[in-house]
């Protein structure tokens, strides 16, 4: 049992990524921002990783996965946007996994303080989509249109 002093972080990391993607999507855009509690942007370096992990429920194996990682300096606005190619994740195997893990480790310039932000992206399983434009307002399901 230990008692430690807790100090609130001076800044926070936010990740803006799509909530879900389809296995047909070829790329996804991830935006990482860092701001101090008083609103000013943070200057620092971010390590962004997007991973597809495969968990085997039958065995207690550690998750194996495929990751795309990027390290970059934040802009003057405290943000960075990266486009990740999804081909390396092989999203067309829907039974193996249902989401991508997104993690951003931000290291503040000058102090070296690190804060981690995390999110996930669901993988949409449907294979087909259909939209009706200018549809008759009296359409009834099951009747030929």
UniProtKB/TrEMBL annotation:
InterPro entries: A2M/Complement_sys, MG3. Residues 5-92 form the Macroglobulin domain. It comes from Chelydra serpentina (Snapping turtle). This is Ovostatin. It comes from the Eukaryota.
């Amino acid at each position: 049992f230990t008692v430690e002093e807790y100090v609130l972080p001076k800044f926070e990391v936010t990740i803006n990524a799509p909530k879900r993607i389809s296995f047909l999507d070829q790329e996804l855009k991830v935006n990482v921002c860092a701001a101090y509690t008083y609103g000013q942007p943070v200057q620092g370096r971010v390590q962004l990783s997007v991973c597809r992990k495969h968990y085997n429920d039958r065995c207690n194996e550690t998750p194996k996965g495929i990751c795309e990682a990027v390290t970059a300096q934040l802009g003057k606005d405290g943000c960075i946007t990266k486009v990740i190619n999804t081909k390396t994740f092989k999203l067309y195997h829907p039974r193996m996994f249902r989401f991508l893990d997104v993690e951003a480790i931000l290291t503040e310039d000058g102090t070296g303080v690190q804060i981690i932000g995390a999110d996930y992206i669901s993988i949409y399983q449907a294979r087909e989509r259909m939209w009706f434009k200018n549809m008759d307002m009296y359409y009834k399901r099951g009747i030929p249109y």
